[in-house]
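Continuing the series of single-chain predictions for the mutant panel. This is the parent chain; the variants come on the following pages.
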Amino acid sequence: MDSQYLTIYDIVPGKQIAGRFTIVGSHRQGGFSTAYEAKDEDGSRCELQFFPTGLFEDSGQVGDFQERLNPWIEVDSPSVLKVRELIKLEPEGLALVMDYPDGESVRDRLNREKRLTPKTVVELGCQLLEGLEQIHGKGLHHGDIKPYTIHVKGGAEGEALHAFLVDGGVTPGLWTAKGLGNKTALIGTPYYAPVEQFGGDAPDVRSDIYNLATVLYEAIAGKLPWGGNSFLDVFQAKLQDPPPFEERVPGLEVDHKLEQAILRGCLADRRRRYESATAFLAALS
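Parent structure:
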């Protein structure tokens, strides 16, 4: 595996990484990393996601994080952004090489359109659940599904929709990497995280289901199931079962079966949620 000394300040357009990737420009920002558009030496477009040196205390943590991410190279689904390889950076840094994520995030689309049609939301959810079936089937968990980590292409009238997950495994990888799990009580995004993660539980199958169900609720309603302006407000609201759509958006009519399918995924008690992506997919479709 290639390695080189590199800091975040060195990553500028034209910079060559690992002797083969040329940086085109900054593309998107995550909670723990920055992703850049790049070109491989064969001319193919890709994305490099850099995890800075300061995120890790020593090479042992880098190695543990890398070990957690390596299995994602084997995930091959149109509903999951493809991870090609990992590059170790000195000192104590790491970069993920991925296919370039075309399209836009669901957050960008919701900012523009405010809501998605129930038909689009069902199609979106089914595609992503098919991706989660493969992820979970390999013993992996996404760990931080939210509008920013779902990308979509198409979906206009008469145009096919393609939805896929990005940043898979980063959150649980950081959670379990040696020395990182005790740095924060909640790795992830509070509005989309289930109650158990507020107490420090690691992401699992049912937390992925909760994350996705919350996004689907927001996509239909144009707002989250729960309000709250502080960490404590959000936590207390999440202790209750999610409200029906009409309660959050008076006058909004949603098919009863679709509403019940989504609400079950958002339940506070993980034991009452779907036990698998396959079960959620069956209810949604």
